[in-house]
Each structure stands twice: as C-alpha cells, then as structure tokens.
C-alpha cells in the first residue's frame, strides 16, 4: 500500500508543474496584449487630435486674415462711414464663404455695432461685453484676442476672435469680431469620433469648455480648470500634446485622453484653444478583458479536467486492486442473494431440482398455501401440489419437456413462449377450500455451462382480477347499452371510447370518432367561454354539467346536456374524462316555444312588454358603452276601439299586424319594435345624437300609420299618438324612461292626437299633480273636502236676486284650493264626476230647503257634466235626490254645456224630455261657444240660455259681441226661453244687457261666489229676493 501512495503523490507533482507552466505562459501573453492595446489606442487618439488641430489652425488663420482685411479697410474712415466702405451685404457674403464663422461684427470705439451680417444686432451697444473691454484696455492691433465661450444674443454658444481697428492716427477706433459657429466644430469633432464610447471637446485656454461631441447637457460653459483635471494636468505640463488617463472632472468616467493645444504661430493669440479626444478605458479594454476571462476559464477547465482525469485514473487503479479481492467474495454471496431475492418476491414462487424436489419455497407461497418452507424443502413426488389441489398431480413444471403439438392438444389453457409456460387454472384447495384462480409461470433453470439444473414456478392469485374483469364486463355492457351517450377521452381530449348511443346521437361510428378530438361535434354556436369554463372545471378535478349546442355528422345542430367528470388512477392523478350526454333537442324546442310565447306577442310576432324591459336594458348598456343617446317611444293607435267595435276583432287584429309590419319597415335593423298590448306599441332607437333624429323617425312612424288600408272591403285611415323619452336626458334607467314615455304619450293624446310629444320636466310635474289630484279625488267625499259656493242671478229689470248657481270648490290639504278647471276634467275622465255630481246636487237641494226655511225663495242652478248626462241612471238618481230632499222640482235648474248635447242629439232630446218631466228647468251653459244646431235647439226642451262670458267681456267695445248677445236674446225670446248673461263685471256691460232685454245678470258686478251662510247678507245688500 506504501508503494501505491508514493506513486499517486508523484503523479500529482507532475500535474502541478505542468499547470504552473501553462499559467505563466497565459499571463505573459495577456500582459503583452494589454500593453499593445494601450499603446495603439494612445497613438490613435493623438492622431485624431492632430487632425483637429490641423483643421482648426487653418480655420483660425483664414478667419484672422479676414478680420485683418476688415481692420485695414476701415482704418482710414470714420465709424459713420464704415457702411460705405464695407456693406453689411458684403459681410454676409464673406461669412458664407468662411466655414466655421457664424457672425462678423464691426463695433466702433463706443461699442456700437456699425457693421454686421446679422441686421438684428445693428445699432446695439455691446460695450459691456468682456471681449470689447479686453480690447479697449489693450488696443494692440497685433494681438488676436480669443474670448472665452459665451452665450450670444440669440442664445447660442460662441467664441469670438477679435482684432483692434485703429484710426489714421493709430488710436483705438473699434474692433472687428468674428464669432465661431459651434455647429461647424461639432461636425469636425464628430468626424474624429471612431467609437461609440469616444467623445471630443474643444475648450478655451482659460479652461471654459466650448462644446462636447456627443453633446451632453450642461457641458458648454463648464470650467475644466479644476485641480487634478485632465485640462489642468495638460496645461501644467507645458507640452503641446499629451496622452493622459484618469477620471474626467465633468463626468466622473475613467478615460484615456489625448489633448492638443492649438496656438498657430504668427497670429499673436492672447489665449490658445485646447482640443481633447478620449475613450472610456472600460470600453478600450473590453475585448482584452473578455479574452483574459476566456483564457482564465479555459485554464480553469483544463486544470479541472486534468485533476478529474487524474482522480479518475487513480480511482480506476484502486478499483482494479479491489476487484480481484471482491470477486471471490461475490461469488460466495450470489447463491444466498438469489435465495433472498426469490424469498422476497411478491408472487408465490418455488424451485425444484432435476429430481423434482423442492429446494426453495418462498414466503409468498408459504402464505398462499399455508405450508411453511421447513415442511416443504426437500419434498418430492409432487407433494408440492397437495396444498393447491388437495392431491398429488402433475404441475406446470411437468409440462416443460412436452412438445408444442402435444401441449396444445392436452392443455388448451397453457401457453408457451419460447421456454416459458403460462397457464390460468383454478386451485380448489386454496383459502381453506374456497378455491382461487391463479396465474402460473414456469421456466427451466440452467447453470453457467448451460446444463439444466431444475425449474422455477411463480404463482399469482388472480381471483380479485377475475372478479374485477367480470365487474368490468358487466359495466362495459351497461355503458355500451346505456340510454345516454357515453364518451371517454384521455387528458389531451383524444377520444378513446364511445358507446352505441353516442353513435346513434352524433352519426359518427366508433371507428370515425376514436382518436379524434370532441371538437368534431363543435357547432361554433356555443360561446367559447362555456368551453373555457368546462376545461377549467374538469382539469381542477370537479364535475362539469351544462348544456351544449353540438353538430351531428350530417351538419344538423342539436341541443344536449352533458355531465363530464375526471377519472383518476390510484395515485389520484387525472388520466381520463368521461362524458354522459343526453339529447334534449325536443325539450329545448318546447322551451323555446314557451319562451317565445313569454317574450313575444303571438299576434304580431313582435317582442312583448316583458321583452321590452330586457331590450331596453341592453340598449342603455350599449349607449353607456358607446357614449351615445337612445330614445324610447310609446305609440298608441287613435280610435282603435272604434274599429274593433265597428268592424270586429278580426279586422282589428289585421290592423295591428299591418301596423307592426309598417313599423318594422320604417325603422332601422337595429332599432326595436314591441307590442305592449291592445293598440299600444313601443320603439327603442339606438345611436341618438340629437333630438332632431327622433323627430324625423316620429314623423315617419306617423306617416306610416296614416297610409290608408283595406279592412273588410272598406278603406280605413288610422292615426297615432307618440310619447318620447330620451336617454340619458329623461332618465338613466328603463323604468324611468317607460314612465316618462307614458307621460309624454298621455300629453300627445291631450294635445289632440295624431302627433308626438317629448317628455319634459313640466310634463312630469303636471303628471305628478295629475296623479296626486286623481288620488285625492278618490277620497274627496270621504274626507269632506268639497264645498259649494253660490253666485246670485239678479233680475235685470227689478235688480232683485232671482236665484243662485251652485259652484263647486275643492279644498285639498295637500294641493290647497284646486280650481274646477283642473279637477273637473280629471273627475270626468275617471268617471268620479258621477258620485261628485250627486253630492253637489244633493248638497245644493238641501241648501235651497234651508233658505226656504229662512223665508228666502231662490231657484237653484246646478251644473251637470257630459259624463253624468250620458249615464244610464241619470234620471233615476236625480228623481231620487228630489224625493230625498223634498225640493220643489220647478225651483231646480240643471245646466248643461252644448258639447254634452250635440254628440247624439236624438238621445239628448229624450233625456232632456225626461228631466223636464221631473219638473226641472234646463239651461244651456256657455251658449254660442259650442256647435249647437238651431234645428235641434228648437227641439230641445230648454228653458234658459246662458250667454258665455267671452261675448260679455268686450260688450261695451266690440259691436260684434253686442250683435251676438242681441241675437241670443232674440233667439231665446222667440223660443220662449229666458237668458242669463254670466261674467258681468262693469256697469257699461250691465246697461247694454238691460237694453237688449237680457233676463238675468250674473257676475262680479253684483257678487262673487260666496259660501251659503253669506247669501242672506248678499240678498239684503242687493235689495232682496225676487
């Protein structure tokens, strides 16, 4: 072992020496490369600044010659005559001819600019400029003054070259100035920058930087004459050119810098210019560092390989030494290991020798057979078969020597593969006599020389597998004959199994489906989001259930409901997916039919009121998203009930279908038309920019409605009313828009129909008042909120009170005193006027009786509305009140408007005659403002005509009104009627009415309407009752 150790140490010494030699060689090469790069870069930078020096010297010398020429030309003339010697235009030509010069100026002894190629500076006083003051203090014409960099009047940086102008006596007459153009020098310095990290700069001899290329913010005007800076070191050296390295004062970079002092001989420059060109040291040596790193890595890899190789070689040497020692021991252990391996095999295994005696009986077979190995080792004569069959018999290993034909003929359950025999058999003695199915495998054993030394047999209990196979067979049969379509895929979605129902449902055979992706069933109708959610759910290990719209092989689309679940292996890993699919096409069709009935009008096939709300919400979302307006129109057919009543419901249905068709043809494709019920329609308009857009559509709709159509052989013309609510102006949600459109529709009908109206806040307020008023009217009698006031009717001849008219007033706790002009029309519309009218008549009759008891006899005039007049029970109600109160009918006067009588004159005559038969008087109120026919008037059993206040108002000033009033009085006299003039307020009116023979006077001239308890006082004031 000592010899081997010394040998290994010697090998390590040789390796170390070789690595040291290699490292020295690499280091020497890297150092030489470094110095070569540095020297080459220094020389290259010097070359660049020399090039700049040569260019700048030539440029400065040329400029100086121009300045000297100008000084000589101007020396003999006064400053006021300079412009005659050299024109400004000539200066411009000179500047254009000299590269690098932006401006040439000539300043007189006072510092005033007399000549310039820039007209903007002519006449300006620049005496305070530093360059002028320097020349003024040292007016030496032999000196070329070089000013420090400065900002010009135009905001640009410049350096001035200045020559003194002397007069004829040699005195100071001014200066000639040439301003150097930084753009020229930028171009020059850019041309010498040969690397991206390189920059060049030009500075004044005082250290003020003129420019830098590439440009950097804040560099022009910076003072470079700082302690230790490149500029300071260069100027201190006294050399014309230098190559220095160090940190740049202005930027903080480590750089290699070449600097050159520009001071052309013979010019007499008071200050030099300094040009510098430099490179970043990191960039200069970047390739060298990369090369050095590569060399180091290469050396390290070679060293590592050498060390590992030596370690491997020495290990190999050790292994060879140990192998010879271990081979003998391994051989001894092999037999024991083989026995241990067989003993720990999971399958029941035994080995027999050539004498068919058991030599190995492992633990698994001990457990299966119940026989310990101590009892079986060494046994022969087929005793090892007894625990399996209950008797001695041939075993699988006995068949190893049988030829194939005999084996196939005698043992059909035995299979041979080479020398291996496999068989499935039933062993009745296993498991305490319950028996078990086993799978046995036998193979002969050979020694190293190829001699057969025995055989080995492995036995596995497959009873559980047989049960599983039977279960699987039943399961497969059940799935194959399932009423639902079943599909199984792998985790990638490739179909591995489909059952018979799947083939029937989809039209694909099993051969056509297996191996493909289920997307062959995809219809492109089901949204992508559904499939994204499907895969997300099943990949997370959860069941997905949902409806899919798939496509059969024929292309037919059908609805199905699918349940897709993941299948896992024993470790819980998802390996497959199983889908159960049912055809729900018939159910979906039924649902679609039900849904259509729920959301569409069966008569017109338009969306109904429920669908309107959904479509309206969608329209509002679209308008919010696109920042546009929308409109909701409520459209109602005028007089539709009349058509239904006169022509029948089939004709009405035909009319509605025709109108629906016209609306659809009139509107755009993306607008929505709905039927709300009856003769009501709704329209949703998208993309509304202006109110005028809706106006145009509304006109089109009204025009479309008004086109005549044939119903049952008759030409019918229909009109419509339209209410409009705009989004977002009139509401930000659907319910508000519907409500406001309805209010606007109501207003359109109130305006006379066959028109459209926009919703407005005034309408809304009016509608709210209408609602409040309508609500209040329902309880007006219960809450005792009504009151009657009475206005006297005075005999025009005697001046005494002949009667009163009962006038209704409503004192609402919420609305205050409500005018009859507001609530009477509403009461008529809601038909509450019938109950209110009965209250008025009953209250007036009772009051008349109360006055009679006080000795006051007056006629009582009570107004009847048109709604009351048309009530079938009118006569019976009035008769009942007369009987109830005991009033004398002849003292009761019922007032009717003309409009209540002209609708159906014949029926009106009949009702009036019945009223007269009760003994009541009949008065036509507001006579002359309606549409009475005189032919009917003479047939009406009327007792009084009331002249409307509109004819009385201007009676004293309008001869036409006077003629009408006279005609009414004459007509009444001829028909044996009396007349009442209402609204009389002025004495002139009263006098005229007396002159024309009016019977009674009613108006403020005698009394306003007053409560019942004030009537006696009024009568007394007017001279008593007639």
What does this structure look like?
The chain has 1026 residues and is an alpha+beta fold. It is built from 34 helices and 38 strands. The strands form seven sheets. The chain has an eight-stranded mixed barrel with strand order 30-31-33-34-35-36-37-38, surrounded by four helices. Strands 1, 2, 3, 4, 5 and 6 form a six-stranded antiparallel β-sheet that branches. Strands 13-12-17-16-15-14 form a six-stranded antiparallel β-sheet. Helix 1 (2-75) packs antiparallel against helix 8 and helix 25 runs parallel beside helix 27 (874-885).
Oligomer state equals single chain
Major β-sheet, in short? 8 strands, mixed, barrel
Number of strands: 38
> Strand fraction band?
15-25%
Quick gist of this model?
This protein is of the alpha+beta class. The strands form seven sheets. The protein has an eight-stranded mixed beta barrel, surrounded by four helices. Strands 1, 2, 3, 4, 5 and 6 form a six-stranded antiparallel beta sheet that branches. Strands 13-12-17-16-15-14 form a six-stranded antiparallel beta sheet.
